[in-house]
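Same chain as my last thread, 131 residues:
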Amino acid sequence: DHAEVGMTISEVVELVQRRASTQHVVQDYIYTKVGNKLRKVSLDDILFIEVEGKYSALQVRERKYNVKASLKDLLHKLPSDRFVRVSRNFVVNLNQIQHIDTFQYTVKVGDLEIPISRTYKEELMRHINLI
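reply #2:
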């Protein structure tokens, strides 16, 4: 598409939006190394990510994947509208939250009650759609 003289403002806006949408492709999965294989993991299946020593663990519905990356590095690679840090040791998938206990400062994801630190509480609350 080439912008031509005489295009209306709405046509220019549409052209810019179309170009922007084709350049920003969001993947709904990541790959993690398991032995000699790269395992495809759907972002929807990730319940939370937890710090385990120097590494991180992706908890999915059926199992846990250990990843040689820090929580901070993983957070930069994941979509910020779907994953949010709730404490020094946990990142949760916003789509997997069952409830947030504002008295105990915990978030329920799967079978686990994950603590929310005061540092990250506001960040979590900015991401949820409270009515």
